[in-house]
Design brief:
By secondary structure, the chain is mostly helical. Helices cover 83% and strands 1% of the residues. Strand 1 and strand 2 form a beta hairpin. Helix 4 packs antiparallel against helix 18, helix 7 packs across helix 15 and helix 9 packs across helix 13.
Length: 378
C-alpha cells in the first residue's frame, strides 16, 4: 500500500511540475513586458522573449512579408486574373452608374469634398482671370508685331482672296442702288445741292437744263462707270492698298481702339454660354449625364479598368519599392503594444497552448510514475 501511495504522490508531483513548467514557459514568451532590475542589475529572463526580441521579430516579419507574401509577382498575378478583373470592372461600373444617376450636383460635390463655395461664381471668376491674363500676355508678346504676322497665314490669304469678291459686291450694290428710284432720288438731291453751292453758275445750269434732265444724263454715266472693267480694277486696287496698309499696322494700333474690359466681358460671356460645365454645376447629375451615362459605364469604364490594371502591373515593382513595405510592416509591429500582441497570439493559439500545458503535465506524471517504480524496485 505504501508503494502505491508513493507512486501516486510522485505522479501527481511530476504532473504538477510538468504542467506548471510548460505554462510558465509559455507565459515567459511575453512576460514580463518590461525588464526588472534589482540593485541596478537586470533580472535574468526579463523581459519576456517576444518583448526582448520585438525589434528582430519586426524586422523578420517585414522581410518575410515582402519576400514571401506580398511579392510583386503574386500581386501581378492577382491583378491579371480574369475573375478579379471582371469583379473590379463590375464594381467600377456599379459605382459610376450610381454616381451618374444620383441627385447630387457638382456644386454640392465640390462643396462637400473640397469646401468650394459658390462654384459657378468661382468658375466664372477663374475664367475671367484666365482670359485677362491670356489677353495681357498676348498683348505684351505680340503688340509690336504687324497684324499680318499675328494673324494665321491662311487667314490673311483668305482675306486677300476676298478682295475681288468685295469689289464685285460693292459694284453690284452700287448698280442696284443707282438704278432704283431711291438711288435716283438721292442722286437728284445731290445734284441739286451741288448746283446750289455753285451760286449764279449753278442757277443758270439748273435753269437751262432742269434738274430732272441732268439726273437722267448723270445716272446712266454712273451705271456705265460701275459696269466698266477699269472701274472694277481701280476699286480693287484701292481696296488692296488699304488692306496692305492695315496689315502693316501693329497689333497695338488695333488694341488701343478697343475697350479691353469690354473685350474680356464679351469673351467671358461667349465661354459661359458655349461651355456646358457652367450650367452643369447646379444641375443634378442624372439630368445632364443621361446621354453620356451608358457610354461612360459600358464603354469607357472597362477600358479604363483594363488600362489602369496594365499600367499598375507594369509599374508595380517600382511602386512597391517606393512604398518600402518592409519598413511599413516593421514599424507596425514595433508599434504594437506587447499586451495587444500577446492577446492576438493567444486568441489564435490559446487551445494549442493549453494542450502544451496538459502535455507537460502528462509527461511530468509519466516521469513521476517511472521514478516511483524505480524507487520501489531499488
Amino acid at each position: 500500500m505504501k508503494e502505491v501511495i508513493l507512486v501516486l504522490v510522485m505522479v501527481v508531483i511530476g504532473a504538477i511540475i510538468g504542467g506548471v513548467t510548460n505554462s510558465l514557459a509559455i507565459k515567459m514568451l511575453f512576460r514580463p513586458y518590461k525588464p526588472i532590475y534589482i540593485a541596478k542589475k537586470r533580472v535574468p529572463f526579463t523581459p519576456g522573449l517576444i518583448p526582448k526580441r520585438r525589434g528582430e521579430l519586426a524586422e523578420q516579419l517585414g522581410r518575410m512579408v515582402v519576400q514571401h507574401l506580398l511579392t510583386p509577382e503574386g500581386i501581378q498575378r492577382k491583378l491579371l486574373d480574369e475573375k478579379f478583373t471582371q469583379e473590379m470592372q463590375a464594381w467600377a461600373q456599379r459605382e459610376t452608374r450610381s454616381f451618374l444617376e444620383s441627385e447630387t450636383t457638382l456644386s454640392d460635390l465640390l462643396h462637400e469634398r473640397f469646401g468650394v463655395e459658390d462654384v459657378r461664381e468661382t468658375l466664372e471668376g477663374k475664367t475671367e482671370d484666365w482670359i485677362r491674363n491670356g489677353f495681357e500676355t498676348f498683348r505684351v508678346q505680340n503688340g509690336h508685331r504687324p497684324i499680318e504676322q499675328v494673324l494665321p497665314s491662311n487667314w490673311t490669304s483668305k482675306l486677300d482672296e476676298t478682295i475681288p469678291m468685295v469689289t464685285q459686291f460693292i459694284l453690284e450694290r452700287g448698280r442696284d442702288y443707282f438704278q432704283s428710284e431711291e438711288g435716283k432720288d438721292r442722286l437728284s438731291h445731290m445734284i441739286d445741292r451741288f448746283l446750289m453751292g455753285k451760286g449764279t453758275l449753278g442757277n443758270m445750269v439748273s435753269m437751262f437744263l432742269g434738274n430732272e434732265r441732268l439726273v437722267d444724263k448723270v445716272q446712266p454715266e454712273i451705271i456705265k462707270f460701275l459696269n466698266d472693267a477699269s472701274s472694277e480694277k481701280m476699286i480693287e486696287s484701292v481696296l488692296r492698298k488699304e488692306w496692305n496698309k492695315l496689315k502693316e499696322k501693329s497689333l497695338s494700333y488695333y488694341l488701343n481702339k478697343v475697350d479691353k474690359e469690354e473685350v474680356i466681358s464679351i469673351l467671358k460671356k461667349m465661354i459661359v454660354k458655349r461651355v456646358p460645365i457652367f450650367d452643369w454645376v447646379d444641375q443634378p447629375m442624372n439630368e445632364w449625364t443621361k446621354s453620356y451615362s451608358d457610354t461612360v459605364v459600358e464603354s469607357w469604364i472597362p477600358k479604363m479598368v483594363e488600362f489602369g490594371g496594365q499600367a499598375l502591373v507594369s509599374r508595380l515593382e517600382g511602386l512597391m519599392k517606393k512604398l518600402n513595405l518592409e519598413d511599413v510592416v516593421k514599424g507596425q509591429v514595433e508599434g504594437f503594444a506587447v499586451e495587444r500582441l500577446e492577446e492576438m497570439v493567444l486568441s489564435i493559439s490559446r487551445r494549442e497552448f493549453k494542450m502544451i500545458t496538459y502535455l507537460g503535465a502528462l509527461l511530468g506524471g509519466m516521469i513521476g510514475f517511472i521514478q516511483g517504480m524505480i524507487v520501489i524496485f531499488i
